[in-house]
Amino acid sequence: MEFDALLAAAEAILFASAEPVAPDRLARALGVDPGAAEKLITLLSDAYDAAGRGLRVARVGGGYSISTRPEYADSVRAFVSAQKKRQLTQALLETLAIVAYRQPVTKAEIEEIRGVNADHAVNKLMEYGLVVEKGRLDAPYKPLLFGTSDEFLRYFGFSGLDALPALTDDEESLLLAAEREAEGISPESREIRQGKIH
């Protein structure tokens, strides 16, 4: 392996490891001697320092890891705190899945599929920016339609809605069964699938 490739591989290993990587383990992974692994770590550390990056190579115990620089601790802490507030519960994930795979949908349709009130879940997903209003259904009372947002795509790393993972046969069957049951209860489900929206 060429030197630049070795350096890049060392960086990838340090970044991917959940725990500090000892030089001898890095050496074995790269097929080099421990001295060469130490040199790669030093060069990688120097490169981060010279570039003034927000990351650094930190020595932790007998190993090394890539971590954020202490001077950016407040910014990282604020970001992590905000992310924790946006953790998705099972109820939110189930609601989000229905919206993602069956959009545009009304709150009533979500409730019929899940069998529980969807007010809290939909409101929380909108607060997180993962779900947005997509217009109104052309039906009595003009109920709101909901769909996923660009933030949803960013949050889960999808390039577009066509990149959503395919449902398993069981998941598809469950959704279709729930929809058939809902169709007997609410005309809104039929209206959505017939495209009568504006």
What does this protein structure show overall?
By secondary structure, this protein is of the alpha+beta class. The chain folds into two domains: 3-72, Orthogonal Bundle (Arc Repressor Mutant, subunit A), CATH 1.10.10.10; 86-193, Arc Repressor Mutant, subunit A (Orthogonal Bundle). The chain is 57% helix and 13% strand. The protein has helices spanning 3-16, 23-30, 34-51, 73-85, 90-102, 107-114, 119-127, 150-156, 169-183, 187-193, and strands at 55-60, 63-68, 105-106, 131-136, 144-148. The protein has a three-stranded antiparallel β-sheet. A hairpin with a 7-residue loop joins strand 4 and strand 5.
List keywords for this structure.
10 helices, two-stranded antiparallel ribbon, alpha+beta, three-stranded antiparallel beta sheet, Arc Repressor Mutant, subunit A, disordered C terminus, single chain, 198 residues
In short:
The chain is built from ten helices and five strands; from the N terminus they run H-H-H-E-E-H-H-E-H-H-E-E-H-H-H.
